[in-house]
Amino acid sequence: MALSAIEVNQLKQAPAVEGVLPVVLGRWSPRAFAPREVSSADLKKLFEAARWAASSFNEQPWRFLAGRRGSSAYKKIFDSLVERNQAWAGSAPVLILGVAKSTFSHSGSPNRVALYDLGAAAALLCLQATALGLSAHQMAGFDPGAARAAFGIPENFIAGAVIALGYQGEPSTLPDEQFIAAEIAPRTRRPWNESFLSAWDEPLDLG
Ligand SMILES: Cc1cc2nc3c(=O)[nH]c(=O)nc-3n(C[C@H](O)[C@H](O)[C@H](O)COP(=O)(O)O)c2cc1C
Fold first, then answer.
1. Ligand 1 binding pocket includes 29 (Cβ within 6 Å)
2. What is the CATH number of domain 5-203?
């Protein structure tokens, strides 16, 4: 039986744990997007959330190249995606490419946590999207060289990931059965004690 967007959103929610932020539990990565624009006011809120991420030396190494469908920025980002991502990401009304400056501005020395900081900013952006009823889907499946050439990204910046953004759509609009199956599959995570440790081979015991 085909599931509706609302039903899918329900089954993608992480199990509620008291005290955990609802946006953390409710964020997930759809591939089906609705044909509905994202307002500039909401885009500004997402970028505001990203802007306030912590970063090493407050370098704020992130830059976000963004475009709405029909714009030249959108086309440049879309064209850089691998085919399997192009198959669904074109339904997202906004595409965003996250880029990190790999050198510190104050010293010129390498910033080995630049991508870490970009990821933190992207995570805040995605959580803010959830808070606004929007959905974001991050992608590593793109050609950083193509993006660099298309946008003229300087050598000391490194492309991190592309984010497809919009309102969650109906799974039935996806281009093939494999995408539909992934869209309606429950979300999974490793058990807690495999990620949080007190020694390399020892789970952290919090009682
Ligand atoms: C850095 C990064 C790269 C990703 N790359 C892709 C990608 O190229 N294509 C894709 O369909 N999903 C991609 N994803 C989405 C992940 O598959 C997804 O986040 C993961 O399966 C967990 O699902 P959830 O976000 O719904 O919790 C990526 C996610 C991240 C954070």
1. yes
2. 3.40.109.10
Atom of ligand 1 nearest to the CA of 182: 21
Taking the centre of ligand 1 as the mean of its atom positions, its distance from the CA of residue 187, in whole angstroms, is 11
Q: Sketch the domain layout of the chain as residue ranges.
A: 5-203
Tell me the whole-structure pTM to 2 decimals. Answer: 0.98
Rounded to an integer, what distance in angstroms lies between the CA atom of residue 203 and that of residue 13? 26
Task: Encode pLDDT of 38-83 as tens digits.
Answer: 999 999 999 999 999 999 999 999 999 999 999 999 999 999 999 9
Q: Quick check: CB of 135 below 6 Å from ligand 1?
A: no
Residue nearest to atom 9 of ligand 1 (CA): 139
Q: Is 139 in the pocket of ligand 1 (CB under 6 A)?
A: yes
Query: Of 85, 97, 137, 183, which is best to mutate to test ligand 1, by the most ligand atoms within 8 angstroms of its C-beta?
Result: 137
Distance of alpha carbon 103 from alpha carbon 114, whole angstroms: 8
Q: Cβ contacts of residue 183 below 8 Å, gap of 6+? A: 8, 30, 31, 32, 171, 174
Do residues 94 and 68 lie in contact, with contact meaning Cβ atoms separated by under 8 Å?
yes
Q: How far apart are CA 160 and CA 198, in angstroms?
A: 30
